[in-house]
């Protein structure tokens, strides 16, 4: 958001995909609208409405399993509805991911990469953009077992890829809300190359979290990739001496609960780095302490990409 507020605005990405005729048909949009009473002619807004879509997809999946023996519970559109929502979610994430107008400034990324190489600290992300991920690859931070590992190899993903063997001491790079690059091939989660991803791509990834907080665990548990990342987040937080929450809104209660539990350990500390526009410093400090505990130290910057005090 500090780099390009328009591009990385979730509402803008949703609006773009909603109006893309080659992604959603008129029937697709009409069925989505029927899930949201009082909504006509616009896409779902906010996580509460995405939560309703998640429930509809779950119901369709359940009824589809009941079908058989000449009994059909769902219309053809109902059978296709889960795929429609998966395509919608994947393309929204793809729109956010594909940013072609530059990258993170060197003054930000170089000290961060040096810090990660020196300390092998863990990184956990909540977004779908390739800015940080691409920079980690290009700077050799994600390179074999040397510094950070995300478990995605050429042969695909397996949680065993995250296990430290033979005395290795790498850190973890955890895509907590997934990535549009992650797709299934012959039943195995694999990663597409960055240049292969566009809103016109014919593949759909299903390892992405975009729903109400009440249903995030359902999405996470259904993905072997996401469930492994959240499991290893516990290990990462357990090892960390300091937890740095960078550029987050504080609205993800699922994550807040984990951070608060680990941050309450006497030997650990929590730092929050956020934009000054988030609100008055003292009010925001109280906000973060309610979310993460009384040990939080808050730093506000006009541009968080100017932070280099790793």
TrEMBL record:
It holds the Pfam family SIR2_2. This is SIR2 family protein. It comes from Marinobacter qingdaonensis.
